[in-house]
Description:
Layout: H1 2-36, E1 49-53, H2 56-66, E2 70-74, H3 89-97, E3 100-103, H4 110-117, E4 126-128, H5 165-182, H6 187-214, E5 219-226, H7 229-235, E6 238-244, H8 254-266, E7 271-274, H9 281-290, E8 293-296, H10 305-309, H11 314-329
Parallel strand pairs: 1-2, 1-3, 3-4, 5-6, 7-8
Helix pairs in contact: 2-5, 2-6, 5-6, 6-11, 8-9
Amino acid sequence: xxxxxxxxxxxxxxxxxxxxxxxxxxxxxxxxxxxxxxxxxxxxxxxxxxxxxxxxxxxxxxxxxxxxxxxxxxxxxxxxxxxxxxxxxxxxxxxxxxxxxxxxxxxxxxxxxxxxxxxxxxxxxxxxxxxxxxxxxxxxxxxxxxxxxxxxxxxxxxxxxxxxxxxxxxxxxxxxxxxxxxxxxxxxxxxxxxxxxxxxxxxxxxxxxxxxxxxxxxxxxxxxxxxxxxxxxxxxxxxxxxxxxxxxxxxxxxxxxxxxxxxxxxxxxxxxxxxxxxxxxxxxxxxxxxxxxxxxxxxxxxxxxxxxxxxxxxxxxxxxxxxxxxxxxxxx
Length: 332
């Protein structure tokens, strides 16, 4: 009897344990199913979106808006000037695998127009940034060394549109809208990410406005190429520069060196600007003869690999530009 009672009690305990195991297993399965329905980049088809851009600035905006929901890649190798870039056959293959190809447009990217005309790239998958801002013609006003020496074609629209933060907002808006068009599922994510980026770009814009308003000078001197017409026009700045925006880098004419040295001395200019990837030889000459110090104005068209690895962004570099501009416009 005792054995039977003991046996039956054991049976009941075993049944309870078995039921508990079943319940736990069902709960695990349930949570697994719920987890599989969660909105995560690894499981969502949107994570498979492939975006290619030409310039770093376009890569940066795309990555900020898409986040982990797309693979964003830059065609332009780190540290390479866009004026010297031509796509390889492998690059063209990658473009045809992309869900979206974002390029700037302009003379430096004429190769894109050739690919589109020859139907080597699908136009439906492309986004041209110069279509979304008010364009300005390239100018030789304020340029010391005219481009007869460099064989540049006049009458073209200046392509350096992103140097104006309001233009950067317009470009980012276009990227956001295109992402939503091809991936409605993650519309809210793209809009939220864009709103964060827009707030940062607006803050940079307000900082430049404040710096220019407080400045004692209304002009800058650029001892380099001048890809800043959209920037100076946006903030009402005058300028003197050595070369036009797309001029080939070459030894400056003696007249250019002399004119800029005399200008800097006459106007008592404490700082002169260079742009990224410059050899700075002209700026060094002017600095040596005039005593003016060099400052960088980074146009953010491309970065070095080290800068990319450090996570440097358009917003961060433009904030540094604002700091340097504040120095250049101050009454020292």
